[in-house]
Design a protein that fits this description.
Number of helices of chain B: 3
Helix content of chain B: 40-55%
Oligomer: heterodimer
Largest interface: A-B, 39 and 36 residues
Strand content of chain A: under 5%
Strand content of chain B: 5-15%
Order of helices and strands of chain A: HHHHHHHHH
Number of strands of chain B: 4
Shape of chain A: rod-shaped
Distance between the termini of chain A: 67 Å
Structural class of chain A: mainly alpha
Structural class of chain B: alpha+beta
Shape of chain B: globular
Distance between the termini of chain B: 24 Å
């Protein structure tokens, strides 16, 4: 078998470095040129790293909004139950489960992104340290320049630094691609939620505002009635009895679980 | 010898470690060639873990080319295949 992964990859990096070396007649010129290039690269890398950070913050904001949505659904469900509107409570809880699903998806992705950003920050810092070391070394090499000795040393140093820049450059590129993907997915999710497209069969009932409108109508229009109802329910030991009575006839597999969820909500 | 793990940096290893690393690397190469995800993941982890165990980080002020370069730990099989099949991914 030919070379393995480790050897092939180092050859690929080396061929890149050699191209840069071949550009100049005098190796000393190559050093200065390479240093200029490194400075430009570092500026670019910092800018890219800042972009990754910005994207990460945007996703954080989105998670926060989704979290608020989750709390809102929870409150809606409670309110609906207080008014004895099991149907609305069920809609709100259905929506809540979907929102919960989004958080479950987004959170680990975000954690992953944070870790990546930390690694990148360290990588960029290390690259900067290498570039600084390179500046010192290139002056030393130039000061003691004898063609025969310097040739090898220059080649080695340039290959080394080119490898470092290639490495950190790739890492940033990958992080940017991943961040963009993640952002696109988060955006799509938010959009779907906003249009209600995620809850197909219940769409008409469960788009958030509908629930709110209905709840508001109930609470403002029939304030006394609902208050009475709530008190009745409390006296009756909560709305669960009614729910179970309603659900038992249907005997859907989900019904019992839903009723339990309702019970939990009511007891708090 | 010097080994770079992309995204992590360079490590100095004893030359005597080469045989062991080559064996792990052969397994990794085979997994990449066969396109077997599970095998690839296991082989990558094994190789990277061993390099990290055996290696000493190269001091930051030393600028040296690596004898061997390894993909970053979170690389997918496709990414590694791309890396090996073309040099387009590595910025010049």
């Amino acid at each position: 078998m030919a070379d393995g992964v480790m050897k092939r990859m180092s050859l690929i990096f080396k061929s890149k470095a050699n191209k840069a070396l071949d550009k100049y007649e005098d190796p000393r010129e190559t050093l200065d040129y390479a240093y200029q290039k490194q400075l430009e690269n570092m500026t670019q890398l910092r800018r890219s790293l800042a972009d990754v950070a910005t994207a990460r913050k945007r996703i954080e904001l989105q998670i926060k909004q989704v979290q608020q949505d989750l709390d809102k659904r929870e409150q809606q469900a409670r309110r609906a139950l207080e008014m004895g509107r099991e149907d609305l409570a069920r809609d709100a809880l259905t929506r809540r489960a979907e929102v919960q699903q989004q958080i479950t998806t987004l959170t680990p992705q975000h954690e992953n992104l944070v870790k990546q950003e930390e690694n990148l920050t360290r990588a960029v810092k290390n690259a900067q340290a290498k570039v600084d070391a390179f500046r010192t070394q290139k002056e030393t090499i130039k000061a003691n320049y004898t063609a025969a000795q310097a040739q090898t040393r220059i080649a080695e140093t340039l290959t080394g630094i080119s490898e470092e820049m290639g490495d950190v450059g790739m890492a940033i590129q990958r992080a940017q691609d991943k961040t963009a993907q993640l952002q696109a997915r988060a955006d799509a999710m938010t959009e779907l939620t906003a249009t209600g497209a995620l809850d197909d069969p219940l769409a008409a009932l469960t788009t958030g505002d509908d629930i709110d409108v209905e709840l508001n109508r109930l609470s403002s229009g029939t304030g006394v009635d609902s208050e009475l109802e709530r008190m009745k329910l409390e006296l009756a030991g909560g709305p669960t009895k009614q729910l179970e009575a309603g659900a038992s006839g249907v005997a859907k597999p989900g019904a019992v679980q839903d009723a339990e969820e309702v019970k939990e909500g009511d007891s708090k | 010898m010097i080994v770079r793990i992309l995204g992590e940096g360079q490590l100095t290893l004893q030359q005597s470690a080469l045989d062991e690393l080559n064996k792990l690397d052969d397994e990794l190469m085979a997994a990449v060639r066969d396109g077997e995800e599970a095998k690839f993941r296991t082989a990558m982890d094994a190789l990277l873990t061993r390099v990290r165990e055996l290696g000493e980080p190269l001091p930051i002020e030393e600028i040296k080319p690596s004898d061997f370069i390894l993909p970053s730990a979170d690389s997918s099989l496709d990414e590694v295949r791309d890396l090996l099949s073309s040099d387009g991914l590595i910025p010049g």
